[in-house]
Specification:
By secondary structure, this protein is an alpha/beta fold. The chain has helices spanning 13-21, 43-47, 86-98, 124-147; strands spanning 2-3, 30-36, 51-58, 67-70, 104-111, 154-157. It has one domain: HybD-like (Rossmann fold, 3-Layer(aba) Sandwich). Helix content is 32%, strand content 21%. It has a six-stranded mixed sheet. Helix 1 (13-21) links the parallel strand 1 and strand 2 (30-36).
Amino acid sequence: MGIGNYLMGDEGIGVHIANRLEHEQMPANVEVVDGGTGGFHLLGHFEGYDTIVLIDATLDNNPNGTIRLIKPRFASDFPTAMSTHDIGLKDMVSALQLMEKLPNIHLFVVSIESLQQQGIELTAEIEAVIPSLIEKIKQLLNELNSKEAIPQQIALVV
């Protein structure tokens, strides 16, 4: 599942990845979802899958374009500055915990410099990391599928 605001440049990296993954060969048990800035509107996606792979931008003081994979189990495990939809995503995770319906979450975060950029184009630095990020996503999906005797339903929410 790609998360982000497509109209705010690098902050929309998740949506850009979702658009590109729609043209890639994905395992049959994987659904690519453009989560945009959906917040609580994405709750149904989170409830309906055993595993969620998220892609989002973050303001974490790492060099621009740094890719990290984290496995948040609690809202407090998310990076401190997740972007313009920070509160909604963290609140949704807390709600899923309370309902005991929290899926297995894998979060790829891409460090960006600021939220000030407006427009649909990514900066050259962020555009340059997309092939590596897509490869990391595919590797994770292969690992997740190889661990399961029966493939689980996976939402790749970007």
